[in-house]
Amino acid sequence: MTNSLHTEDGLLTLGVRDRWYALCPSRQVRPGELTRIDRAGEELLLWRDSSGVVHVQEDRCPHRAARLSLGVHMGDRIACNYHGVQLDGDGVVASVPGSPGCALEGRKALRTFPAREHAGAIFAWFGADEDAEPAPLRVPEPISGGDWDDFLCYVEWDCSYLLSVDNLMDPMHGAFLHRNSHTMFSGKREAVFQIRDTDTGFVFEKTDQRGVNFDWSEWVDTGGLQSVTLDIPYPATAGPGGPFTIVACVTAINEHQHAGFFWRCRKVRGWERDSWRFLYKNRLEARHWQVLEQDRAMAEAMPADAWARENLYQHDIALVRLRRMLRAEAKRQAASRAERRPARAAAR
Ligand code: FES
Ligand SMILES: [Fe+2]
């Protein structure tokens, strides 16, 4: 864990703890390979054991900190390439070939993060207390299976994840930035918004238009996973079925880059599902990418101090609320960490 994760600002810009984070698409971690990624302030090694189960561990050998991602995949163990120490998927040292029987053998010495695969992505739990049990991974309904179908669209953008959260909680940009798109060309270009509380967050919605453009966003925190859900109406050319729902999760890579997961979902069954899947691959996906590209260009070009000099108005009240919530959580976690640190030092 980087030192900046001890501070309120660090936790805000890299992501608060005690959350599940989407790390990467499942396909990025191939059998027999060691995959290195940075996410939310952690340097990570991802690999699959011989049953295909994915493991997420710190990319740091417990012997002398060499990068395990430069090591050897042995099926159900990995071996550090520096002096050959072998570790299993639970982070236990399975063998020290250069010094058999040494005290390191059998010790859980490698930080290992609880990991799950769901909806085509790998998730890991980053706990404030490394040894505490994670909350259950509860995902929003559109990516929980059942009557819904989805495609995962994955991006890496060169800007803070916080700017993507702003973008997702800002329905009004649909009628302006995306006005020439196939989905957001109609409806009013002015609106009055309201906030409606839910059990898992809040909905930010236009009071005078729904089902016409990008008219609402919902912040969802299901006791561990933070995401945004929104609806965009599909035109008739998108075939039968309801609107186009997006579930989005964003995860910091570092302070200046983030990974974005956009599950593009539709509640369709039977032949309508087949029809959507066909149309999506053949026509809709390229158009959706064009829209996302408009978001990327806007977000990446934002000044680094964008939040320092803003003049917000009524359409921005969701951002204000969410930023306040995230900062309050970062502050609480930094304070609790500071409290725990002297206790930990005394215990040593
Ligand atoms: S640093 Fe990994 S085995 Fe020595
Ligand atoms: Fe957008």
Give the H and E element order: HEEEEEEEEEEEEHEEEEEEHH
Uncertain stretches of 5 or more adjacent residues: none
CATH homologous superfamily label of the largest domain: Naphthalene 1,2-dioxygenase Alpha Subunit, Chain A, domain 1
Total number of strands: 18
Strand order of the largest sheet: 12-18-17-16-15-14-13
* Whole-angstrom Rg: 22 Å
Q: What composes the largest sheet?
A: 7 strands, antiparallel
Molecules bound to protein: FE2/S2 (inorganic) cluster, fe (ii) ion
Under CATH at level 1, the class of the largest domain stands as Alpha Beta
Name the helicity range.
10-25%
Strand fraction: 25-35%
The 3D shape can be described as: globular
CATH architecture of the largest domain: Alpha-Beta Complex
Query: What is the straight-line distance between the termini?
Result: 20 Å
Tally of separate helices: 4
Mean pLDDT: 94
User: What is the domain tally?
Assistant: 2
Query: Per CATH, what is the topology of the largest domain?
Result: Naphthalene 1,2-dioxygenase Alpha Subunit, Chain A, domain 1
Class per helix and strand makeup = alpha+beta
Organism: Saccharopolyspora antimicrobica
Domain Rieske: 21-124
Pfam families: Rieske (PF00355), VanA_C (PF19112)
Protein name: Phenylpropionate dioxygenase, large terminal subunit
